[in-house]
């Protein structure tokens, strides 16, 4: 399930490290166990602030979260109303990377996520899309869809006060004067966030 992006791929020791590291909040897979059927069901991602559970991401939100953790590998993301006729398609993300840029101005923090990904459509979806528009236009449309979805997820995480991206740690390391002069919880929750996505279509299932 972690490989599919339904929940984070976090080991116990990684959780403990993040829990003990100042400036980054841990996450865990959120699971439920059916004792009668002896099955485990993935619910998504558990978000923490320090040692306190504060919010959850469902499995759809967790897929976008994995893009922002540069851990998206072979995950399927449903793009609603993507066909020219209004139908949905599945985008298969094979790889992603992410960089965070932190800027401060006065008391305001600006956070920019730059996400790069590679993906492909299934053959039937691609054949229909390719007939109606060019590859660059499709890629820009993907970028816009992913940017909107990722922004919604980050704002949910931000509103919960959880910082799994290590924003506070980054401020401590690279903007220490700002870090020492401000309440980091307040700064983080009031930060202005921008997400840029650049997706490259590889147009084949096994590149």
Largest sheet: 4 strands, mixed
Low-confidence stretches: none
- Strand order in the largest sheet: 4-5-6-7
| Order of H and E elements | HEEEHEEEHHHHHE
Structural class: alpha+beta
Query: How much of the sequence is in beta strands?
Result: 25-35%
Any idea what the shape is? globular
Distance between the termini: 23 Å
Helical content, roughly? 25-40%
Cα gyration radius (Å): 18 Å
Instruction: Kindly state the number of beta strands.
Output: 7
Short key terms for the protein model shown above:
4-stranded mixed β-sheet, alpha+beta, 207 residues, 3-stranded antiparallel β-sheet, 36% helix
Task: Annotate the secondary structure layout.
Elements: H1 12-20, E1 27-34, E2 39-49, E3 52-57, H2 59-68, E4 75-79, E5 89-105, E6 108-121, H3 123-132, H4 135-159, H5 167-174, H6 176-181, H7 184-189, E7 192-201
Parallel strand pairs: 6-7
Antiparallel strand pairs: 1-2, 2-3, 4-5, 5-6
Helix pairs in contact: 2-4
Q: How would you describe this protein?
A:
The model has no long low-confidence stretch (mean pLDDT 89). Helix 2 crosses helix 4. The chain is of the alpha+beta class and 207 residues long. Strands 4-5-6-7 form a four-stranded mixed sheet, sandwiched between helices. It has helices spanning 12-20, 59-68, 123-132, 135-159, 167-174, 176-181, 184-189, and strands at residues 27-34, 39-49, 52-57, 75-79, 89-105, 108-121, 192-201. It starts with 11 loop residues before the first helix and ends in a 6-residue tail after the last strand.
Could you give a short description of this structure?
This protein is α+β, with helices and mostly antiparallel strands.
